[in-house]
Amino acid sequence: MRTGLVAKKLGMSSMFTEQGERITLTFLQLEDCQVVGQKTDSRDGYNAVVLGSTLKKPSKVSKPMRKVFADAKVEPRALLKEFRVSQDNLLDIGCEMKPSHFKIGQFVDVTGRSIGKGFAGVMKRHNFRGLEASHGVSVSHRSHGSIGQCQDPGKVFKGKKMAGHMGDENVTIQNLRIVEIDDEKGIIIVSGNVPGSKGKYVSIKDAVKKAVSV
Length: 214
Description:
One of the primary rRNA binding proteins, it binds directly near the 3'-end of the 23S rRNA, where it nucleates assembly of the 50S subunit. InterPro entries: Ribosomal_uL3, Ribosomal_uL3_bac/org-type, Ribosomal_uL3_CS, Transl_B-barrel_sf. Belongs to the universal ribosomal protein uL3 family. The chain has three domains: 15-25 and 98-116 and 167-214, Elongation Factor Tu (Ef-tu), domain 3; 31-97, Double Stranded RNA Binding Domain (2-Layer Sandwich), CATH 3.30.160; 117-164, no CATH class. Helix content is 9%, strand content 37%. The chain is built from three helices and eleven strands. The strands form three sheets. The protein has a six-stranded antiparallel barrel. A three-stranded antiparallel sheet has the order 3-4-5. Strand 9 (170-182) and strand 10 (187-191) form a beta hairpin.
């Protein structure tokens, strides 16, 4: 089990394959991604690597965190992300991470914070078809209809699909193929959609349902 990477979503585009198939592309950029900490099984009960992304002014960092970065002998970072790894995949503190950590053609899982949609109805939130457009239905065409039973059990079960807050939650998109990598510019291009809006950070890890080797 290897560490992942932390990247910023730059935007999206598309391209055509040699077979004439159009595929969607998402551009991700690494910004000063570096190992800033370690967790070991003997000390912490598990093995993990802590990555930092995007340099931050020391004056903008809290005093306890300045001590953490000073002890690690690395510059302060704006974002920290922990990745669990196996014992043989622990990385030294200060190690710079590059897009070439992954390979072209490899499948990865990308996790990010989805765009918030606010309060949404059931048709938008859960893809309900709504009520009939005629035959006596009035005013409530986009409502969800009945939400329970009769006297027995006489309640609405937890988890019932209803209107409510939509988006702004952690989402993982699995099995995205890496199309291109550029170590000089710190760019990773993946095929498919990635959660979040432009400028938001995502984590990239080896796909759990696909083999790492390509």
